[in-house]
Amino acid sequence: MERKTIKKISIIFLVWVLFPLVSFATVLSYIVTWCFYILYAKTDAPKGQPLVPLSPWRVFKVTLYVLAYVYENLTGPFIPSIVQYIWHKLSSERKKTTVKKNIRYGIRPRNFLDVYSPDRVSTTVLKNTKEFSQNVFHAASTNTSPISNYSQTSDSSVIILICSSWNSGNKSTCMPVAHNLQSQGYVVVVPNITLYPQGKIAEMVSDVQQTINWTHSNIRQFRGDPSQIYLMGHSAGALLSALTIIHDVCARLNVLPLNNSSVRIPHWNNAPRSLAPRVQGLILFSGTYDVTDHYAYLHHKGLEQVHALPRVMGNTPGSFVQCSPMYLLDQALNRVMDPDRLKMMLPRTVGLIHGAKDHFNPPTSAQNFFELLVKAGIPTVKVKIYADHSHISPKIDLIVPTKRICVLLLEDVKEVCKGSAGVVMMASGKLREKHEEDEHQFGSQSRRVSYDENQDEGLNMMRDRDNGKVSGGRPVLITA
Q1: pLDDT (tens digit, 9 = 90+) per residue, 325-378?
Q2: Measured on CA atoms in the order 408, 410, 414, 417, is the torsion positive or negative?
Q3: Which of 28, 109, 232, 406 lies at 20 to 30 Å from 255 by C-alpha?
Q4: Exposure of 474 by Cβ count < 10 A (0-12 exposed, 13-18 middle, 19+ buried)?
Q5: Are residues 281 and 315 in contact, defined by beta-carbon separation less than 8 angstroms?
């Protein structure tokens, strides 16, 4: 009798409770995924891609990504940081800041920028600027240059902040972090760049080029030093920053690889007077630097059809490698006749900052890029992977000066701008001691992608997609 009762209760539970819950979750997953596809996957979709997916596995992956993104923003640093920032601004003494807004730097509709000038020049920044300018001038110049005059002035280092994503973002959202950097004594330039689908990678790189050109020509009137320009980017902005500079160096050295794709990254229309770099340093947060590798990661996550990156980059194997800073630098190292010329034209300092728990752009990309930069002979290369953080964003983690992570990231920025020579790989940052598992995964051993392997899974995946096949996996990482 008791067994029959338990059996009946179980059947009722399955029919009236569990089955409706599973059905509701399934229907909701399909609705979320289909809405995501309708909003983001229709533009420039490859031939043969369905309007919406029917595969339960793909629907599950996309839904999981959306839920993880929402959860991270609700429980992660986003809302707490905004609240802390508001409280900090209300409780601290209000100071008038110098901001010049909506300055046009190009001809496209979004080509406007804001300039944040410090009310006072930080003595630390000034000291670093003078010392580093003198070192650079002594090492790079062969004749009299305007740089030598700038290094003797009291102008501040300049940070160009690129924080837009591929299809969204506005310079106004960068205001809190720009104010924070401004309070440290930096001159901060925040541009709006062309977004997808109004433009693709060529237009975006062109906007970054024009921003740097404008800064070189006009930043003195804002008490900025045009010989001390640093490019700071987050996520998409990190890839854009690295690609803009490395592609320019390869073009100036005439070592660009053969390009059979439809993507044509523009060359700069003004040639520099010497072998000096366009910018002195790169400060890159949570970036990906190998588009082929990242496409494979997106495919593994079931996101390659809805993510903007493949379509921004041309959506072909050939265009992916043309848009990969790692590939371009690797080709330059193999083809350049005079490695010293390559070294002189690259930025003097590069800082790569990443979160060990970043599920959007895994930190292996930063580690691989780190080795190539070291191989290229850049005097100062630093990579710091913070163990307890996910997708580190300067727009969130750099807005509250009293937060521990903000203090550490500001120190990272200062180290790049200071330009002290050396190669540093810190797997955990300074937040806590690393566990053995983290040390195994993010140890001091650097690895890189071998571009000469014919079995590169990322490229094979693209070819299989074009042939109507399905493949999976990640590109093989070869121990250096």
Answers
A1: 999 999 999 999 999 999 999 999 999 999 998 888 999 999 999 999 999 999
A2: positive
A3: 232
A4: middle
A5: no
